Amino acid sequence: QRVALARALITRPQVLLLDEPLSALDPFLRIRMRGELRKLQRELGISFIHVTHGQDEALALADEIVVMNNAVIEQAGPARDVFNAPRTRFVAQFMGGHNVVALPEGHFAIRTDAVGVGAPGSGIAASVTGIEYQGTHVSVLARIAGDQEVTALVPDTEFFSSPRSPGDPVGLVWDARNLHKLTA
């Protein structure tokens, strides 16, 4: 990958097109190469157009993100804005880290780390369908009315102070300010 990048840079381009440049690398090397790409961009002062299907890669490297679906731009903007306020169901699901829920007022995206798991009777009634320990947090998958699956990322210390198991009834809670209405 470094040799291919050096060959492309030798011509001193004004814009560099990178098409899935990190896709064949293992996760550790991929993170190192992201750092090298950021450093090169800063030192050379040229624009990179970086095509990727890796959301973490896009968020780590992009000043601006363009999310396309079937050759149509679904959303474009600063990386943080696109991640925090997806406009469409596709963008919310593609960027990851979001739930898409149908409520009486319409369809909304809410970040998985903005969903809390409480006692039955609090918030929206749900049933735990899966638990996945992920180190710093635990992913709790739950089913709510309308056969909708909602994921809550709960800090590991919080989860293990009140552990849940598949089949347990819970209440899912969130701040309504964290809901983002979707247009499609």
Task: Please describe the structure with a list of short key phrases separated by commas or semicolons.
single chain; about 180 residues; alpha+beta; Rossmann fold; OB fold (Dihydrolipoamide Acetyltransferase, E2P); 5-stranded antiparallel sheet; 3-stranded antiparallel sheet; 6 helices; 12 strands
Low-confidence stretches: none
Strand segment tally: 12
Give the CATH class of the largest domain: Alpha Beta
Write out the strand line-up for the largest beta sheet, numbering strands in chain order: 7-11-8-9-10
Return the CATH architecture of the largest domain. 3-Layer(aba) Sandwich
State the share of residues found in helices, binned by percent: 25-40%
Please indicate the percent range of residues in DSSP E strands (runs of 2 or more).
Answer: 35-45%
* Arithmetic mean pLDDT: 92
Number of helices: 6
Largest sheet: 5 strands, antiparallel
Please state the structural category.
alpha+beta
Count of spatially separate domains: 2
Stated plainly, the CATH topology of the largest domain is called Rossmann fold
**Shape from CA axes?**
elongated
The end-to-end distance, rounded to whole angstroms, is 38 Å
- CATH superfamily assignment of the largest domain? P-loop containing nucleotide triphosphate hydrolases
Would you list the SSEs in sequence order as H and E? HEHEHEEHHEEEEEEHEE
Radius of gyration: 20 Å
Mind explaining what this structure looks like?
The chain has 184 residues and is of the alpha+beta class. The protein has two domains: 2-90, P-loop containing nucleotide triphosphate hydrolases (Rossmann fold, 3-Layer(aba) Sandwich); 98-181, Beta Barrel (OB fold (Dihydrolipoamide Acetyltransferase, E2P)). It is built from six helices and twelve strands. It starts with a helix and ends with a strand.
